[in-house]
Known about the structure:
- By secondary structure, the protein is of the alpha/beta class.
- It has 14 helices and 24 strands.
- The strands form 6 sheets. It has a 4-stranded mixed beta sheet with strand order 22-23-1-24, covered by helices on one side. Strands 2-15-17-16 form a 4-stranded mixed beta sheet. The chain has a 4-stranded mixed beta sheet with strand order 4-5-3-14, covered by helices on one side.
- α5 runs parallel beside α6 and α10 packs parallel to α12.
- The longest helix is centred in the middle third of the chain and has 13 residues.
- The structure holds uridine-diphosphate-N-acetylglucosamine (UD1).
- The site of uridine-diphosphate-N-acetylglucosamine has 21 residues, from α1, α5 and α6.
Amino acid sequence: MDKLIIHGGRPLNGEVQVSGAKNAALPLMFATLLARGCHKLTNLPRLRDIRTAEKLLVELGAGSETVPGGLHIHTNGLAHYEAPYELVRTMRASVLVLGPLLARHGRARVSLPGGCAIGARPINLHLKGLEAMGAQITLDHGYVEARAQRLKGARIYFDLPTVGGTENLMMAATLAKGTTVIENAAREPEILDLAQALCSMGARIEGAGTDTVVIEGVDELQPMNYRVMADRIEAGTYLIGGALTHGRVHVLGARPEHLEALLSKLEEAGARIDVDSEGIIIEAVDEIRAVNIRTQPHPGFPTDMQAQFMAMMSCANGTSVISETVFENRFMHVCELQRMGADISIDGHTATVKGVRRLFGAPVMATDLRASACLVLAGLAADNTTELSRIYHLDRGYENLEKKFRSLGADIERVPE
Length: 417
Ligand code: UD1
């Protein structure tokens, strides 16, 4: 296992290119199950989660071929319909095969994902929606077994806007008989990206990116040839890096329309933001001001940026109140930040962060993907040396993180533990 050694205190300066979005790429890869043929995906990030998704597709009988700039997925010979525990356990997004498999093969068996570091994360809303579309669902030995002759269109109201649930049902509905309406749908940009890819395959979808998505089922879809959108969370992480270290960073490929809540909070905290045709530029003023945030479904402040923002607030001037409303247990990074000198107290879903003058380096441990990014950022800003272990979490979601930070002037290296 590797760890990262970070000698902090250097301002980040320069340009960094954002990779393709993991959270857009995964559903797109599973959407290939909806149509026979050769699907061509480009701008896929090179990440562990992408390799896990590829393994799952191969397990189901698909063929995959790495080509310059992307991946070709051949879905002619699907032979299996089961997503086994070993794969779902390492990557929860594997449950997104449920909708496509059921829609094309009338059958799917997917391991229940169970809990994870950031909370219980049930899939009850995915299952309720598929049942409304006529699927018969049984739970058996930790697996969800779903069957349907042909799914039928239905009107589905989500009790809360779930990203994965919206994606799973949207994919399932593309081949259903009749019209499906998803109300209180999630509005994340990755959902719009998936809808655009599905439409390029011949699906009929309206309203993706709003809270009501209407899908008119068709009999058959064609393979896609699609370029994955840029990763807004990765972009946000580099923007915070620029602000937190009092540098100037040009994040190439970042799309301001995907990052409105974060950009407005960064400006409130005193950073100067400029947008040009290539991306977003951030420049920090001398002092970071404390600001409050409350995570919410898109277009609210993203829960996937909460930990990184907390790293910045840990050394802001004043006290910041950070409320996490999307996941129940997403403050795992707090104990580690405290070991670096941060002054943070937690009361339920709210963290009160009293900014300190400097953080100091310490040995810390990553607990989940975004918590890891938070600790890297804290290490970059801290005095002395931070050693971050368990970085396999980072490799699930950030492509070449240490190389990209190094290209911005950071003193960071990966060494075997
Ligand atoms: C996706 C993202 C993840 C991000 C999250 C919220 C991917 C691969 N992952 O996760 O990075 O943090 O959106 O933006 O895209 N819930 C239920 N029942 C369900 C489904 C969800 O109660 O059936 C709850 C969850 O426990 C959570 C909330 O709804 O509290 C939002 O979860 P959801 O939007 O589904 O997150 P994911 O799709 O798992």
